């Protein structure tokens, strides 16, 4: 075959499919980059306005601390105060019960102990006869009630030991009051030569209220109430 017989094939232009694929790949790359950038660019915006402002948080902490402090103060003051009120009421009732019990039992036919005599400053003379006593205690005061018969010299020793003397006895005076006579059952009626005095000491030392039956001067009968205030 000669050269003239050869068919010359013209150069073909690029097909549309190849250009489309290259365009698609480019567009897909650009779209992918733009898509990825979109969420990352907007991710911080919800957090900017969704939290509690620092000022509100600080104010809540201050209020919480103040409430806790106030609660502690109320507990520290209220609990001891309530305890003292309850304790005082119980002590008062206990003292009243003891007084009522002592009054029901009456005076004990015996000597008060040496410690009781020292605490209430009651130097009962050694030659005393018919000694009777009992003690009461409450939240206001403690009292020792004593009755005994002695001699004229024994009376002087007793009064001197208390810190007073026969000259302090007022003729015709009953110094022990109605409250104590009601508790003890003592009776200071007419027809008896009474003499009485009150020997006062500064707290916490006891005060002695003394009444003496002087009908028989050689054998006086002494009634004494010694009261000590805590």
Summed up, what is this model?
With 230 residues, the chain is α+β, with helices and mostly antiparallel strands. It has helices at 16-42, 45-50, 54-105, 114-119, 152-162, 178-184; strands at residues 129-137, 142-149, 170-171, 194-199, 207-213, 221-228. A 6-stranded antiparallel β-sheet has the order 1-2-6-5-4-3.
List keywords for this structure.
6 strands; alpha+beta; rod-shaped; 230 residues; six-stranded antiparallel β-sheet
Mean pLDDT figure: 79
The N- to C-terminal Cα distance equals 151 Å
Encode the helix/strand succession as letters. Answer: HHHHEEHEHEEE
Give the proportion of residues in helices: 40-55%
Taking strands numbered 1, 2, ... along the chain, how are they ordered across the largest sheet?
Answer: 1-2-6-5-4-3
Unreliable sequence segments: 17-47
The secondary structure category is: alpha+beta
- Rounded Rg: 54 Å
Question: Roughly what fraction of the amino acids lie in strands?
Answer: 15-25%
What's the overall geometry? rod-shaped
Number of helices: 6
Number of strands: 6
Main beta sheet, described?
6 strands, antiparallel
General description of the model:
The chain is α+β, with helices and mostly antiparallel strands and 230 residues long. 47% of the residues lie in helices and 17% in strands. It has six helices and six strands; from the N terminus they run ααααββαβαβββ. The protein has helices at 16-42, 45-50, 54-105, 114-119, 152-162, 178-184, and strands spanning 129-137, 142-149, 170-171, 194-199, 207-213, 221-228. The chain has a six-stranded antiparallel β-sheet with strand order 1-2-6-5-4-3. The longest helix is centred in the middle third of the chain and has 52 residues, at 54-105. The radius of gyration is 54 Å and the shape is rod-shaped. It starts with 15 loop residues before the first helix and ends with a strand. Residues 17-47 have low confidence and may be disordered.
């Amino acid at each position: 075959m000669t050269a003239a017989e050869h068919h010359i094939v013209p150069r073909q232009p690029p097909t549309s499919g190849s250009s489309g694929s290259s365009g698609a790949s480019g567009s897909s790359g650009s779209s992918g980059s733009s898509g990825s950038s979109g969420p990352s660019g907007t991710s911080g915006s919800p957090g900017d306005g969704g939290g509690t402002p620092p000022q509100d948080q600080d104010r809540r902490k201050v209020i919480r601390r103040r409430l806790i402090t106030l609660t502690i103060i109320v507990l520290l003051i209220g609990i001891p105060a309530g305890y003292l009120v309850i304790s005082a009421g119980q002590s008062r009732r206990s003292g009243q019960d003891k007084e009522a019990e002592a009054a029901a039992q009456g005076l004990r036919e015996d000597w008060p102990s040496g410690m009781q005599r020292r605490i209430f400053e009651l130097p009962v003379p050694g030659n005393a006869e018919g000694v009777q006593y009992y003690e009461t205690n409450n939240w206001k005061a403690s009292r020792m009630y004593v009755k005994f018969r002695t001699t004229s010299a024994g009376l002087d020793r007793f009064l001197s030991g208390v810190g007073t003397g026969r000259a302090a006895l007022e003729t015709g005076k009953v110094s022990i009051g109605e409250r104590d006579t009601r508790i003890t059952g003592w009776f200071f009626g007419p027809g008896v030569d009474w003499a009485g005095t009150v020997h006062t000491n500064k707290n916490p030392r006891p005060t002695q209220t003394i009444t003496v039956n002087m009908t028989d001067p050689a054998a006086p009968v002494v009634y004494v109430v010694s009261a000590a205030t805590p």
